[in-house]
UniProtKB/TrEMBL annotation:
UniProt-annotated binding residues for GTP: 166-173, 191-195, 213-216, 283-286, 314-316
Subunit architecture: Monomer.
Designated name of the protein: GTPase Obg
Protein task: An essential GTPase which binds GTP, GDP and possibly (p)ppGpp with moderate affinity, with high nucleotide exchange rates and a fairly low GTP hydrolysis rate. Plays a role in control of the cell cycle, stress response, ribosome biogenesis and in those bacteria that undergo differentiation, in morphogenesis control.
GO biological process: ribosome biogenesis
Family per record: Belongs to the TRAFAC class OBG-HflX-like GTPase superfamily. OBG GTPase family.
Binding site for Mg(2+): 173, 193
GO molecular function: GDP binding; GTP binding; GTPase activity; magnesium ion binding; ribosome binding
Domain OBG-type G stretches: 160-333
Source organism (scientific name): Stutzerimonas stutzeri (Pseudomonas stutzeri)
One cellular-component annotation, GO: cytoplasm
Amino acid sequence: MKFVDEVSIFVKAGDGGNGMMSFRREKFIEKGGPNGGDGGDGGSVYLEADENLNTLVDYRYTRRFNAQNGQKGGSTDCTGAKGEDLVLPVPVGTTIIDAATQEIMGDLTKPGQRLLVAQGGWHGLGNTRFKSSTNRAPRQTTPGKPGDARDLKLELKVLADVGLLGLPNAGKSTFIRSVSAAKPKVADYPFTTLVPNLGVVSVGRYKSFVIADIPGLIEGAAEGAGLGIRFLKHLARTRLLLHLVDMAPLDGSDPADAAEVILHELERFSPALTQRDRWLVLNKADQLLEDEREQRVRQVVERLDWKGPVFVISALESEGTEALSQAIMRYLDERTVRIAEEPDYAEALAELDRQIEDEARARLQELDDQRALRRAGVKAADEVEDDDFDDDDDDEGGAEIIYVR
């Protein structure tokens, strides 16, 4: 299934039904009376998080959604039927944004969570409502109110406990295949991973975590180069980042240089994201002899001045991956306990999450604006060229054009 993480849709709630104007006309009853019923309320539009979905592809081609209108009121004081609500399923991790105001309407992060995005119109009143001691035969009704209509932007950020960082061919897909049942594409050329892949890593009975394989970043990703800018945002909701580095690059480059490229792109995209807990994972250890391996590890750690945990693994040979998985599980368990027991720690993490979300959204909006300006500039330049050409044709006092053969 094609992975789609951003779509724009239009939703329209149902209009309320009109009130009915009606009078009783019954045998043996001399004086009837008003008996027009109210209309029905229009149906509302909701978005609901569905754990069985992992992409927004269903909304790529069908983009207009309308809830049912309320029915008109009936005679004999019958109320019109209410319009059915429209519930649109979206993947867990979807953010809903009002396209007109850029306001975040909600964030669906739990299965079954539901958000009202368009309120159905209020019903109209029948003439029975206006009966009084001085107005025995009212001929007044009210129409139903129109339902809300909105243009929405849906953004999906995958929810994972652990996110994998690294340049193309750092071994991220091989690692996720080694520790989980996920089967992302693996090949010996860059950009084999074009969409995020999720894998569930089981480390014991009732103990597991979700790991996300983010497509490889390149230098300039934070400026829109390559695929990185599309997927950097998915790192915003991870709890831990694993920075995978190829210890033995085929081109003979310095592994520390590769690590610095990723750190630079994280800083450019969201400075707050660099404050997320991050572990250094040196991969492809099987490509080096033991002495070379130890020397390479020391060089990378010293060059980066790395203070956090460092793991040396071979994803291809599953060497060191079990110990790494166990360490991740312990970290996540301890983090959960600290959040429950230390309010200050929990608030600091929540504030960091908000800051990362805000910076990521601002960066993505900035790049969208830049692209829009470039498109507008190209269009304006084309129009200027067309106008200049037309002016030359219409200017009778211009220079004479002589064609030399």
